[in-house]
Specification:
Distance between the termini: 46 Å
Strand order of the largest sheet: 1-2-9-6-5-3-4
CATH topology of the largest domain: Dehydroquinate synthase-like, alpha domain
CATH superfamily of the largest domain: Dehydroquinate synthase-like - alpha domain
Largest sheet: 7 strands, mixed
Radius of gyration: 20 Å
CATH class of the largest domain: Mainly Alpha
Number of domains: 2
Strand content: 15-25%
Shape: globular
Helix content: 40-55%
Bound molecules: nicotinamide-adenine-dinucleotide
Structural class: alpha/beta
Length: about 350
């Protein structure tokens, strides 16, 4: 078992990384002082795979356990399904000291965290992330939320879990495309913060894609450490945390323009990372060698590195101006200066942005 601490004073918590550990979760939760009623929030895909192990473990530890399932898919991460979960929690008589468990990927983690933050003005919640993307990114850091039809993640809160419990073995059932989507976020951490992690991703590609446990454990732990360091310094994204958005500015624009149906989040981020590296070269920051290494690593993991030719540059720019990260229309980019170091810039002219797009 590996542990990473997220240091946020009284709201600090541990990220525990291990294997075959779902049956131990009940005992671990018993160390907290929670009410005996617990609910698991999940979807049928993930619950059918891992729900029983967790229910048995919780019951063995003395908890009364119920579960609430919502349909599988990003389109169900909305206020209506959040309301449905709230209703089920009330029916199951969860109280102010109860805990809910998010069992699934980022969609389940985000909606469960949001519900936990508003149910009876806030109850405990635990993340059991089961996609690579949620293990290295969305389960840590306390951003919760649901989508609005006018924008993704537009309704939400900052609300930290009490524990993040990662069982790497859950990745064995994850579709390959979803696994690669998570890899994009790990490449991101390497580029913005850790050249050694980037080198490891280059050298151990076959081990990682072959789901070698030690390699996965290393990259997941290192990613959680980086996210934790950044979040501990800037929980509410008033500065530093924004560097975690490397690849996301245009990535989100691509997702919006393609109606969230053509690319997975990590695929859009992969194209965005290559775009921001190009932009960085254009304005004289990262050298061509660095740019080439970033593109090669994205390609090596079978992720898309080039923006689709059919997308219109002006439309992408207009989406970027509307993004919630843009302040008064100024588009912010995270630009790598070299592998392992990045800066946040809001002063890039449109000519250079268009040049990098095309
Ligand atoms: N809160 C944050 O900081 C943050 C950060 C990044 C992304 N996100 C959010 O995360 C979401 C994307 O998360 P995601 O990529 O995990 O997608 P997801 O939650 O939709 O999961 C992807 C698919 O994999 C399935 N699945 C999950 N675990 C599985 C397993 N072990 N075996 C088999 N199938 C499994 C799911 O049912 C789903 O069909 C988006 O809504 C995004 O906005 C949030």
């Amino acid at each position: 078992m590996q542990k990473v601490s997220v240091k946020l004073g009284k709201r600090s918590y541990e990220v525990v990384i291990g294997r075959q550990s779902l049956s131990d979760i009940g005992e671990r939760i018993r160390t907290f002082v929670f009410s005996p009623r617990i609910a698991i929030i999940s979807n049928p895909t993930v619950f059918n795979l891992y729900g029983d192990d967790i229910m048995v473990s919780l019951k063995k530890a003395g908890f009364g356990c119920s579960h609430v399932l919502i349909p599988d898919g990003e389109e169900y991460k909305d206020h209506l399904w959040a309301y449905y979960i709230l209703t089920e929690l009330l029916k199951n008589r969860l109280d102010r000291n109860s805990c809910i468990i998010a069992l699934g990927g980022g969609v389940i983690g985000d909606i469960t965290g949001f519900v936990a933050s508003i149910y009876m003005r806030g109850i405990h919640f635990i993340q059991i992330p089961t996609t690579l993307l949620s293990q290295v990114d969305s389960s840590v850091g306390g951003k919760t939320g649901v989508n609005h039809y006018l924008g993704k993640n537009m309704i939400g809160t900052f609300y930290q879990p009490r524990l993040v419990w990662i069982d790497i073995d859950t990745l064995t059932t994850l579709p390959q495309r979803e696994l690669l989507s998570g890899i994009a976020e790990i490449i991101k951490y390497g580029v913005i913060r850790d050249e050694k992690l980037f080198n490891f991703m280059e050298q151990k590609r076959d081990n990682i894609l072959g789901l070698d446990f030690e390699s996965l454990e290393f990259i997941i732990k290192r990613s959680c450490e980086i996210k934790s360091e950044v979040v501990s310094q800037d929980e509410r994204e008033s500065g530093l945390r924004a560097i975690l958005n490397y690849g996301h500015t245009i990535g989100h624009a691509v997702e919006t323009e393609t109606a969230y149906s053509r690319f997975l989040h990590g695929e859009a981020v992969a194209m965005g990372m290559h775009f921001e590296a190009r932009l960085s070269t254009i304005i004289g920051l990262i050298n061509r060698d660095g740019l080439l290494r970033i593109k090669s690593l994205i390609d090596a993991y079978h992720l898309p590195s080039d923006l689709p030719r059919d997308l219109n540059a002006d439309k992408l720019i207009s989406h970027m101006r509307l993004d919630k990260k843009a302040v008064t229309g100024e588009i912010k980019f995270t630009l790598p200066e070299r592998i392992g170091k990045a800066v946040l810039r809001g002063d890039i002219n449109v000519k250079d942005i268009k040049k990098a797009i095309t």
